[in-house]
Specification:
Cofactor: FAD; (6R)-5,10-methylene-5,6,7,8-tetrahydrofolate
Family: Belongs to the DNA photolyase class-1 family.
Number of strands: 5
Helix content: 40-55%
CATH class of the largest domain: Mainly Alpha
Largest sheet: 5 strands, parallel
GO biological process, one term: nucleobase-containing compound metabolic process
Shape: globular
Order of helices and strands: EHEHEHEHEHHHHHHHHHHHHHHH
Number of domains: 3
Protein name: Deoxyribodipyrimidine photolyase
CATH topology of the largest domain: DNA Cyclobutane Dipyrimidine Photolyase, subunit A, domain 3
Keywords: Chromophore, FAD, Flavoprotein, Lyase
Structural class: mainly alpha
Strand order of the largest sheet: 3-2-1-4-5
Distance between the termini: 66 Å
């Protein structure tokens, strides 16, 4: 029987995998391949948290393949050279993969496809990552969207989910050797990620379990609870989606299958969040510069504050003196994740109260989030900063104290991640500098004052905004 390489990338699963399905449907024996080539991602090579997750996800994929008689072949890049070598070793007649959509990987993949086809190989790429590919939805004028609501309205009008496909029961064995996973050096030398794995189980089985837990639990009341960081009110499925351990259309199928009068609003609310993920890739495809530059050029002349490393380090370490901000940054370091509402707050504080460029925040999130995704990360930070598509107006400056009082009213989230404040009365945990005597007595290790006076920081941000209008 003929052999085909199946090149795994951001699709680390066996069910609902269009590239694998196509290879099997064409009658090929698939040789599963992963090529490690982070340098080809250029300035946005995966960060440390992503690497730590990837190590475990690849191990899970290899275990799933071995349970079916095959195994994952791991090689180092460059990608084109590694694939050519494997074609020579296996005599492969075809190569299949699922598409990636980053600005630097699309032309690379197009060149590889062209060169292999010129050699006479069958080469196919598929959509294994999105509900709609970035070029599928256009405005009535044929251009890209910059506002989410009409984008999502169009998406819903064209709602056609891909069919579900079970993982194959068995796969043909092959004798191709690869590198041991450990040779990639993905796991950190110092186990700073140890706390991650108390929360997460990378791999396809972990993704499926996370979806089941969500549909049985947090989905009920999702619209009301998704903004409350003191509880599990969200799906926690974003890292599994990022690594392709579950297909977005499987999530949508499952949710559609459990619709009821009492659940419709929550299901639609969650599907809308999947829609934001689609919108972010739509934006990055059409505006590829936005991973590094403002989408709205009006902000190119914005008066960002001069770089102050001490302020940036205090923000990164959760030592700003503002409890909800510090709680979010400490959750991020401990778990590789941060609640979405809190992401908006820490981002607003960095970009507006401190006036530190949004790219500094984007880079830190990129290195520390297990769900670090170039499109979502770029869109999220530009939304927070007011420089992107459908963005929060720059003059909308979140007050972290009132936001904490609204969304963490018992300060449970704050207390969990900033435990030195636990002895303070609940009301004092939101702005402890307003109770200096209590703070000095009960939490002397916590900053006595925030990095910036919130009112002064807001006024400085608004003044800078008006100068670049």
């Amino acid at each position: 029987m003929s052999v085909a390489l199946v090149w795994f990338r951001r699709d680390l699963r066996l069910q609902d995998n269009p590239a694998l399905q196509a290879a099997l449907a064409a009658g090929h024996d698939p040789v599963p391949v992963y090529v490690h080539a982070p340098a080809e991602e250029e300035t946005w090579a995966p960060g440390a948290a992503s690497d730590a997750w990837l190590h475990r996800s690849l191990a899970a994929l290899d275990a799933d393949l071995r349970a079916r008689g095959s195994h994952l072949v791991i090689r180092r890049g460059p990608s084109a050279g590694a694939l050519q070598q494997l074609i020579a070793e296996t005599g492969a007649q075809a190569v299949y993969w699922n598409r990636k959509y980053e600005p630097v990987t699309q032309p690379r993949d197009a060149a590889i496809k062209r060169d292999l086809r010129q050699q006479g190989l069958q080469v196919e790429s598929h959509n294994g990552y999105l509900l709609f590919e970035p070029w599928e939805l256009t405005t009535q004028q044929g251009g890209p969207y910059k506002v989410f609501t009409p984008f999502w309205r169009n998406a819903l009008s064209r709602w056609r989910l891909a069919e579900l496909c079970a993982a194959p029961d068995m796969l043909a064995a092959h004798g191709i050797d690869g590198l041991p996973l450990e040779a990639l050096g993905l796991s950190p030398r110092l186990a700073w990620d140890a706390g991650f794995w108390e929360r997460w189980q990378p791999g396809e089985a972990g993704a499926q379990q996370t979806l089941e837990v969500f549909t049985d639990g947090a989905l009920n009341g999702y619209c009301e609870q998704r903004d409350l960081p003191d509880r599990v009110g969200t799906s926690l499925i974003s890292p599994h989606l990022h690594f392709g351990e579950i297909a977005p259309w499987r999530i949508a199928h499952v949710l559609q299958g459990i619709r009821s009068a009492g659940r419709n609003a929550d299901i639609d609310g969650y599907l809308r969040q999947l829609g934001w993920r689609e919108f972010s890739w739509h934006l990055l495809h059409h505006f590829p510069q936005t991973s590094d530059a403002n989408l709205n050029p009006r902000f190119d002349g914005f008066a960002w504050a001069p770089p102050q490393q001490a302020l940036l380090e205090a923000w990164r370490q959760g030592r700003t003196g503002i409890p909800i901000i510090d709680a979010g940054m400490r959750e991020l370091w401990a778990t590789g994740y941060m609640h979405n509402r809190v992401r908006m707050l820490v981002g607003s504080f960095l970009c507006k109260h401190l006036r530190i460029h949004w790219l500094q925040g984007a880079r830190w999130f990129w290195d520390t989030l297990v769900d670090a995704d170039l499109a979502n990360n770029s869109m999220g930070w530009q939304w927070i900063a007011g420089t992107g598509a459908d963005a929060a107006p720059y003059f909308r400056v979140f007050n972290p104290v009132t936001q904490a009082q609204k969304f963490d009213p018992q300060a449970r989230y704050i207390t969990r991640w900033v435990p030195e404040l636990a002895k303070l009365p609940v009301k004092a945990r939101f702005a402890p500098w307003l109770s200096p005597g209590l703070l000095a007595e009960m939490a002397p290790s916590y900053p006595a004052q925030p990095l910036v006076d919130l009112a002064e920081g807001r006024e400085a941000a608004l003044a800078a905004y008006h100068l670049c209008r």
